[in-house]
Amino acid sequence: MFAAEFEPFDEDNRRRSTRAPVSFGAALKHDGLSRTLCTVVNISLHGVRLQTYSPLKRGMIIWLTLPGLEPAMAEVMWSDDYSAGCEFIRPLDEQSFRRLANIDVR
Hints:
The chain is mostly beta strands. It contains 1 helix and 6 strands, in the order E-E-E-E-E-E-H. The protein has one helix spanning 94-100; strands at 20-30, 33-43, 47-52, 61-65, 72-80, 83-88. It has a 6-stranded antiparallel barrel. It is globular. The termini are far apart. The model is unreliable at 1-10 (pLDDT under 50).
């Protein structure tokens, strides 16, 4: 006989910071690819999810230009066709995150 207790998996518990659903254009650049456009579909202090027009590969380092910010270096953590999750090398500051996520800063 085997008995066990379990809790439903809560995906949010693995996140370091809150993700905000967004939809805005950004530019990205990496070695061997000239500047190209992409769409940011969610953002957090530590990373972004992108919809791209060029496939990205896991482990690739990119420079992402978000509206109103200097280019940010990020690593592609996963990629699936034309969608990718990237982690910022240096996290965004709280004010920049709130502005990009359209969260009221007081």
